Structure formats: structure tokens, C-alpha cells
Amino acid sequence: xxxxxxxxxxxxxxxxxxxxxxxxxxxxxxxxxxxxxxxxxxxxxxxxxxxxxxxxxxxxxxxxxxxxxxxxxxxxxxxxxxxxxxxxxxxxxxxxxxxxxxxxxxxxxxxxxxxxxxxxxxxxxxxxxxxxxxxxxxxxxxxxxxxxxxxxxxxxxxxxxxxxxxxxxxxxxxxxxxxxxxxxxxxx
Amino acid sequence: xxxxxxxxxxxxxxxxxxxxxxxxxxxxxxxxxxxxxxxxxxxxxxxxxxxxxxxxxxxxxxxxxxxxxxxxxxxxxxxxxxxxxxxxxxxxxxxxxxxxxxxxxxxxxxxxxxxxxxxxxxxxxxxxxxxxxxxxxxxxxxxxxxxxxxxxxxxxxxxxxxxxxxxxxxxxxxxxxxxxxxxxxxxxxxxxxxxxxxxxxxxxxxxxxxxxxxxxxxxxxxxxxxxxxxxxxxxxxxxxxxxxxxxxxxxxxxxxxxxxxxxxxxxxxxxxxxxxxxxxxxxxxxxxxxxxxxxxxxxxxxxxxxxxxxxxxxxxxx
Lengths: 188, 318
Hints:
heterodimer; A: mainly alpha; Rna Polymerase Sigma Factor, Chain: A; 8 helices; globular; B: Serine Threonine Protein Phosphatase 5, Tetratricopeptide repeat; 3 domains; two-stranded antiparallel ribbon; about 45% helix
């Protein structure tokens, strides 16, 4: 049976994982777990949602792995899956909010933390509430470029849209976010 | 690598930069999921999927048998006077489910915050509230595209129309070509490229989408071109997309969108086998945007992969 040490090269790991080798799949999971988890956290802003989303991403990835042709890097491919999963998450969040009739600017839950932490938490909640109100395509471009720091070429590959579209959507997202948050877009 | 939200070209607002930094600094929670749990979850998901396939297969089989039984009953009743059983069964079989698709040469691109159009037929679409760009390529036949929206319909033979649809009204602006606005009462108003947008009267309240239509004409044109290029790419029309991106990078070279268009153009030219032109596009990028170090490395790598070639005059190899 293969051990993790036998797969030093990513292409070997990938080929073995595509054949259903659990050791190779574990190696991929271990290698990308934290990175994908961090991406998910930046995409949704809710630490409580990360574990479930992480599981969904890797279930989807391992189910689709035999069809992965290697056109993109594995990291880019996983990023695209994470983007799709969080899109579903935002949809369900919006449905839940509608059901519960929570106003869009409802104050975040109070948690007993030191004052500075609480303030940061509230500001993050405010930011993600505004982010959640963006159309999916704008939010995804903004997260990829600004929160994740992908360059235009990487973001274009991950989101599967032309570079000029990524650029436009990011700018538009920033304008809308500023408008929603009530802050000026361009300081004089 | 931690993203740097302070890159000045990325975010203009200082306050937003601060919020972005807060979001980026949020500590990752302790992850409960490990490889063991993941493998169990993958196996469970696979089992559920298999059960679903079996259930769907069973239902399909049952439906097929029931259908066959009905056909048998029907044909046995008619067998004295009608055609043979096999023929009748063939006639009664349901039409294969076909996905509606627009005719070749018809492109409908939705705006950023707009739902996708509903394809009602090869030459007919339904538009929900939002912004759309509708393009019909020139064609010799009489076919007309009907774009149905709240408050009326745009009938387009060829050309490009921008349509802003509200809850109960719509605005249509012809950018080029031949089109007619059809009001709900059937009144027809030819659209021209020089007239103001035709607006239905059902709702005269100004709304954000309408207001944005009065924004900078140049910006609208560049944005429209970029959307058109994306629609062409989605439709697999690479050469047409190349033409649109080329136009953006040459006619609107000073617009911010030209930079992205140039980066889109180069790989498309390469994919089309126009390697010298692709090289020129990358060189033009480095020449035009020397301060954009962020992508320069990627562009130089792409240039290296293309190898040497003739000198360039803008986008054209000499």
C-alpha cells in the first residue's frame, strides 16, 4: 500500500487520487485543507460555517476528481469549487434571512469578548452583511481580487471569466459596497 | 501569502481597506474535519448518490412500463381500424426533451446584477428586471428576435440594443442596426440610433438602472463592448471576441478597461494560432503599463513561452 511519503510529486498524488487511492486523497486534503478553509472564511466571514463548507468542497472535489483534466492548477480548481459552494451558502443565507424576516442591518449577536475584539467582530459582521448583498458575480470577483489577493490572470482562471470582466466587476463591487456601507468610494 | 488590500489600484476607499484588512485578519477556527471524517462523508455522499440513481432508474423503468401498457391498451382498442402497434407506439412516444437555445448569431448578455434571460424560442427571449445587451448578427433572412420585457417587446432584425427592464417598464436604446419597439397595445415605434431611449409608460418613477443609463457615454460603450466580448466568448466565437477586444484596446486605449482587454486579447490570439500578434499584444501591455508590476512577471513568462518574433508596431507585427 502506498504511503504518503511515496507521493512527493503533485502530479503523482493527483493521478493516484484520481484512481481513488485514499492515501493520495488524504495527502491532497492535508495539503490544501487550511488554505481552502482560509479562503472559505474570507468568502463567507462566518467561522461557524467553515467546517461544513470545507467538507462540502472536498466531497465535491473527490467526487469530480476523475474528471479533472489538469487544465488548471489543482489550487485554482479547488478555488472554483469553493466559490460555487459559497454561492449556495449565500443563497441559503438569504433565504433564511427572508424566512426569519431579519432586517438586512440587524445588529450582530452580542458575544462576551473584550471590547476591542467585539468592535472588530461587529465591523466584520457589518462588512460581510454588505458583501452578502452584492450580486454573486460581483462578490466573487471582489473576494478573489481583494480579499484573496489573486492577480487578474489568476482570478480570471479561477472564476472562468475574461480578465476585463474581473476588473470591471471588482470595481463595481467596491462602488456598491461603499454605497451599502455608507462610506465614500474615493477620498478626496 | 497574505493579500495586500492596500494596493492603491485595488481599493480606493480607505475605510473599505480597513474593513477588508479586518476580514483578512479573522482567525481561522479550529477545524474539526480530518481525513477520517472526510472519507466517511465522501463514502456516504457516494452511497446517497447511487441510491438516488437507482431510485430514478426504477421510476423511469416503471414509467416506461406504464407507458407501454397504455400504448398496448390503446392500440388493442384501435387495432381493427388503425395502423400497426409499433407505428402507433412510435407516434405516441413523447418528444425528446430538448433544451431551448437561441438561434446562431443571437446573443443576449445580462448585466452584473441581472438574472439570465429566459429563452422562449430560437428567436424569442423573456427579460426579467435588469440590464441586457441584445445582439443579433447581420443575416440575410427575415427572422426577427423578440425580446419580451415588462411593458413591451423589442423586435430586432440585426444590430445591438441595450435594454433596461424595471418591474413594470423598460427602456430600449438602439446602438446599431434595425429594431422596433412594440408597446403592449401593439403600437410600433421604430428605434433609431439617434433617438433617446424608448421608455414604456407603465412606471414613470426614475430608478437606479435608468439613472445609470445616463452615465458617461464612453464608459457605457466600453462596458458594452466588454460585455459583448464576454458573450461572444461564451458562445465560442473567438474570432469575433478578438475583434471586439482589439477595438477596446485601440479605440479606447486610455480607458481602464483597455488594460484587461489587452490581457484577454493576447491568449485569445495565441489560441487562434496568431502567435506574432499575441506576442505584440503582450509587448504592448508591458509598454503601456510599465507601472503595473503585479502582472508583469506573468506577462513576461507568457512572452518567453511564445519565443522570439518580429518587432511590433502596436498590435501588429512588422
